[in-house]
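#structure-requests
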Amino acid sequence: QLQLVESGGGLVQSGGSLRLSCAASGSNLDRYAVAWFRQAPGKEREGVSCATTRSDVTNYADFVKGRFTISRDNTKNAVYLQMNSLKPEDTAVYYCNAARVRGQGTLVTVSS
């Protein structure tokens, strides 16, 4: 059974960068499209980015376009989210998702 574990979150200053990782186990991640979501305190969950099985098609929410990049390494059974030019409003718990499975999330805090 597929399991996902996110990592790479932390505290960063506005304008900084972080790279989130999502490691899969129990199944080959290359069978699934993958997505990153986030949920800020007191707000609803929102989609951030997604990628097809071979990352030949990727999509981004308008609020991260040009700043975030989704990628995957199927040899490592992992998906990544490179986040640049971070803003305080990017503060949230970030989750990866595949095959209706979600990880426990990793907290990103951006200070102003």
